[in-house]
Amino acid sequence: MGPAEVTETSGLDIGPHPHIGLQTVTWLLDGQALHRDSLGSEQLIAPGQLNLMTAGRGVSHSEEATGRYSGRLEGIQLWVALPEATRNGAAAFEHHGDLPRVDLHGANATVLIGELEGAASLARHDTPLVGIDLEFHGGTAELSLRPEWEYALIVLRGSVELTALDGQVISPAHLAYVGEHRDDLTLRGDRGTRAMLLGGEPFGERILMWWNFVARTVDEFDAARDGWQQADSRFGLVASQLPRIPAPAPYWPSK
After folding, report:
1. What SS3 class is residue 7?
2. How many CB atoms lie within 10 A of CB 172?
3. Which of 11, 98, 128, 168 has the most CB atoms around it within 10 Å of its CB?
4. In what order do the strands lie in the sheet with 14-19?
5. pLDDT band at 165, cuts 50/70/90?
6. d(CA 163, CA 61)
7. 3-state secondary structure (DSSP) of residue 81
8. CA distance 202 to 150
9. What is the full DSSP assignment across 60-101?
10. Which residues pair with 27 in a beta bridge?
11. What is the pLDDT of residues 31-53, one digit of tens each?
12. Which CATH class is domain 1-98+205-241?
């Protein structure tokens, strides 16, 4: 999201909308935003803090201007697919304002989810995985990896040289898939470069994604879409003044 200029009352104006089968991981580099959801949560988020919402069978939320912050807003929101064991469970929300940090010499690492070098986040994760913010201060960062996991890198600011990909330079708006069977990873970035390292056990389940939903079948999409359009109790209500976002028409034939 962003970078963009926002005011106290406008800028991040994402009205109530639904999710199923996933977690939203919201992380800001600059600015502030307000999260509201159908669980009754109302949480301001700022840089260095983590908002984690677990949709389970169904939840709805909005992302809004704070009513007091004006200036630059920039961040990222990641979606984590939930496994079969929890994807139809209850919705939940958590906020973590104090996350563990690790000095990697060439970069400072903040552990959003999972564990790095013995530093573990308290944030929920339903499959083995890790999400790390890397803030480079010029130089090389070396990270230990789990060879049975797969990894990828998203650059948010600046550029990162990735030795695992023959020195390829990764720029913002690209995801560099590093793959599996690696014990370590060497990254180089100039001062001020920001990137996200994502990793985890390969997801063994086939998933489908459409609009704001992660599911296993088109029938599940149809049921979730119909429930949202009919404002049934599955997705609850969000205490927001922003207009509710309607679901788009599906691209597959309706029954």
Report:
1. coil
2. 14
3. 11
4. 14-19, 59-64, 33-37, 42-45
5. confident
6. 40
7. strand
8. 6
9. EEEEE--SS--EEEEEEEEEEEPPTTTTTS--EEEEES---E
10. 50, 76
11. 999 999 999 999 999 999 999 99
12. mainly beta
